[in-house]
Amino acid sequence: MAGQETTHSGILGPGRLDRALAEAIPSLSRARIQALVDDSALLVGGKPVSDASSRKFEGLPFTLTVPAPLPDKAEAQDIALNVVFEDEHLIVVDKPAGLVVHPAAGHADGTLVNALLHHCKGKLSGIGGVERPGIVHRIDRDTSGLLVVAKSDRAHEGLAKLFATHDIERRYLALVVGHPTPSAGTIRTQIGRSTTNRKKMAVLPEGKGKHAVTHYRTLEQFRDASLVECRLETGRTHQVRVHMAHIGHPLIGDSTYNNRRKAFRFGPNQSYFSRQALHAASLGFIHPVTGEKLGFESNVPEDVQLLLTSLRI
Description:
Number of strands: 19
């Protein structure tokens, strides 16, 4: 438990020491165990051992001392969260538009991480030795919807692997300018930092950036816009926004990738839509610890619903 030193004891199995320990202590990732061994936290047969790759300790008793996690530098803040799922290993939240995920320049506090540090106080097992939530993916400040966060070291490692192997189902709803042609398809490009504006991402030539794949299909068409479903095969920064702009149909309200962002009004006061019209509507994955198949859906938020109503009129 966070805030307390813990001790694990048992008998070592066969194979490499770090792997045998990971099997004996499933709550700790192999990387975390390697770091603890390097920090002289392991006794085998009552003697300190510092070689995590050794294979000569099968059948011997061990004691591994895990120090209390260090407090995260971010401050815990009482910020309301819409929690759709939580267990001892992970938490799924429905993030509102406007909430930054992680503290950064210009957003030192008031973020999702600050909120999670308060909500999960005493329940974070010390990811990498620090009492913090494990952020394995992010959605932009002005994008709403579902996000999964690790609470334990093991869940953090497992979720990271799922994202690396593209074994996470992520479905976004986007309102875009115009009517994509064809109405459904797959966009495959390289995405990386723009060479002309470092605050933007861009489609780059082959061999540069990172491979990015978005599968899209049009769900509904309006006079000058479309409701599009985007399923992500990869998870690059601003991927949906960059890809839809790349095929000539940027998101409504996108101040970064849409030069016509003030062309659409919504609601009773006919205001301009002030953020990118993007919502992380569903999230599905295999629980990295329990093996349970999980799936979550998020309703379209009120501002996007008002925009949809205006477009249908």
